Amino acid sequence: MDFSDGYSADVLDAATLEDKSKSSSPISISSLLEAVADDLKTLNKNLKTIVGTENPVLASAAEQIFGAGGKRLRPALVFLVSRATAKVAGLRDLTPQHRRLAEIIEMIHTASLIHDDVLDDSGMRRGKETIHQIYGTRVAVLAGDFMFAQSSWYLANLENLEVIKLISQVIKDFASGEIKQASSLFDCDLPLDEYLLKSYYKTASLISASTKAAAIFSGVSETICEQMFDYGKNLGLSFQVVDDILDFTQSAEQLGKPAASDLAKGNLTAPVIFALEKEPKLREIIDLEFGEAGSLDDAIDLVFKSGGIERARDLAKEKADLAISKLQCLPEDEFRSSLEGMVKYNLDRID
Prior knowledge:
With 351 residues, the chain is an all-alpha fold. 69% of the residues lie in helices and 1% in strands. It has a single domain (23-348), classed as Farnesyl Diphosphate Synthase. The protein is built from 17 helices and 2 strands.
């Protein structure tokens, strides 16, 4: 995976997009999703039944997480790219494969959330208790595994080998991202490229695969399919960098978790990586894994004073600009406008 664009030397969770401090922003998620509102309504009706009812616990778990709300941003991206590229291909409407793809993507994302909550021992997800809090860790892990397996079965039934390979790689990438993160905790020598690769695995892989797969099902050229992949990749990376900035700049109440929680756990993100280039004292603090009283607060101060936040903001904007540049192959219509708006809205969260 090439991350050499620009800077070279993780979430797009729907809930995180609602930055309460940006209520005056001219771009709203609801307006961006209006172009595919009917498609999302159909998807919402199907999600709770697609898991099946053969196991009451799994059915209850699906109801718990699918009923917790969220903006369904990943399937929305599938629908937006599907409709934009369908127009290029001269299709009158979306194919059943487009719609099934959107459902599969949301199932994979949901499975990853269940596993993430177990790994992070999170008690709440979108205002509701997490699956492992209700049913226990063992059932939560199995529920996530079942959703991955179920999504793979539906994926195989699409009978498109290129898409099967593309989406199957995402599940592998999720695991690779978690392993990379776990093996690099408190590593002050973590290169920016490694951070971006981990962010790709954890966040951007699913988005880029889904946007490319949507274009494949429209039957457009390989060039357009690759540009849709690059759009998703850079959008995903920009989202992750923005989330990592917000981990420092938002209050614990806004985040729904303690501020700078990634840093406290030793997960060094873009603001910290940039700050380490200018603040030797920060390395000393991190090497001691915040063992001294007040050392985490000192580290946070150094990240701000060093300009780490500003440089991370520049990185997020650079990836955002790359994402928008990949949309030039699409017709100028409401679907392309919403795809561009997704990128701009993300940056609005840190303006």
